[in-house]
Amino acid sequence: MAISSTLRDIRTSLRARLLIAIGAILAVGAVVLSLAAWQYAATAARDAYDRLLAGGAVQIAENIYMQGGVVTLDPPAAAFATLSAYDLVFYRVTDPRGVVVAGYDDLAISAPAAALREGVVLRDGVYRDQPVRIAAVARRLDGAPGDGWSAIVLAQTLRARDSLTWDLASKAIGLIAAMSLLALVATALCLRLVFAPLTRIEAEIVRRRPDDLSPIAMMPPREVRALVGAIDGFMQRLSERITLMQRFIADATHQLRTPLAAIDAEVELLTDQTRDPKALDKLRGRIADLARLTSQLLDHAMIQHRAQAPRFAATDINALAKSVLSQSVPLSLDREVSVSFVPSEGDTVIAADAISLREALANLIHNALAHGARTRLMVRVERAAAHVAIVVWDDGPGIAAEAQQHLVSPFQKGDGSHGSGLGLAIAAEVAQAHGGSLRFAGGAGDFSVRFEIPASPFARHI
């Protein structure tokens, strides 16, 4: 459990991920540099000891001379002492006839005689089950039998070379490891300095009260300025949303108290007086008003919520308008009203939020029936190149031009109206959420409310 928690913390920590990534890069670099250092140390040790070995072979060749017609060697003690400090040294000297005149008979080198006459030849080999480095050279002696060329072979084991290689490589690898560790520590310190402003921003947010949604006071670094700006913007929208909901709750509370108080008064009259049918009708009316208000309050809250996160889908406006009209007109009215529906002949399938559109249109139709239409009500769908409009027309008194913009605000009522003042506000907010508008046209006897939205509003909310 602890290991999985640690792994999860590492995956979600930007600092840890950066440290691991940089550490991995440094580790790979250190391995590559260590291999290169080892190769360089091996080459340097081989070259140094090859020069000593070649010099020893040359010194041996220089100490060969003729005595009584026989090739003789005066061994160079200084050369042997230098080469045998850490290693075993083997040599062989042969005269022009191939007779071994000094050294080990079985020591040989696989190199042509012509190459030896041109200079020192170096080869790797194995002698007496030990890896050795072999140097060979030939020297021409005046008066020697045959062609006069004597061959000198000198071999040395590899202990000193390996020791020097390890010494040079270990020091270089140690330096690489120290520099890599220092670079990782420096990276950790730099990350701490880099993330310090974010830590201070976090501390500022943590210290805030729940109701403090003001912008972050600290000036952020340029690289995270957009992120902090987005946080500030979110807090501003959240503050506006909270303020809006608080105002809505306060208004809703105030609006609910009025019909409840009226119902209470009517009930008192029914208790104290004779059961009057008119009083019962009033009570039924108050209860209907309360039900309508409660429904509109819930609808308004839903519309405000959906406006912040619209859910668009393919919607047939013709079908939707016809369905809402059939469901919104009551079976009986207190007056004779002719209701008609005129669909659009063009394609009216667009991307829209069908739920909020249904609520908006239902409120417009209810307003027209309750406060407008005397004898006629018509719902018409119009399709243009850039937009689709739903027009609710009636032959009622209409709305005065100076009051039209006022009535699209929540809880604003017209003169003599007994409604809640939410119907037009709901429709206006739905139109705005779709990138459209709610407009009024005409006057008494020929009044219409035009609900217009773009034909392709989906792209506005991607």
UniProtKB/TrEMBL annotation:
Q: Where does the signal peptide begin and end? A: none
**Where does the sequence pass through the membrane?**
18-41, 172-195
In terms of superkingdom, the source organism counts as: Bacteria
**SUPFAM superfamilies, A to Z:** ATPase domain of HSP90 chaperone/DNA topoisomerase II/histidine kinase (SSF55874), Homodimeric domain of signal transducing histidine kinase (SSF47384)
Q: Which Gene3D superfamilies match?
A: 1.10.287.130, Histidine kinase-like ATPase, C-terminal domain
> What catalytic reaction does the record list?
ATP + protein L-histidine = ADP + protein N-phospho-L-histidine
**Taking the first listed entry, what is the main subcellular location of this protein, grouped into a coarse class?**
membrane
Q: Give residue ranges for domain Histidine kinase.
A: 251-457
Q: Which Pfam families match?
A: 2CSK_N, HATPase_c, HisKA
Q: Give residue ranges for domain HAMP.
A: 192-243
Q: Where can this protein be found?
A: Membrane
- Which key words tag this protein in UniProt? Kinase, Membrane, Phosphoprotein, Transferase, Transmembrane, Transmembrane helix, Two-component regulatory system
State the EC number(s): 2.7.13.3
- GO terms assigned for molecular function: kinase activity
Q: Is ATP-binding among the key words of this record? A: no
**Alphabetized CDD domains for the sequence:** HATPase (cd00075), HisKA (cd00082)
Name used for this protein in its record: histidine kinase
Organism of derivation: Bradyrhizobium denitrificans
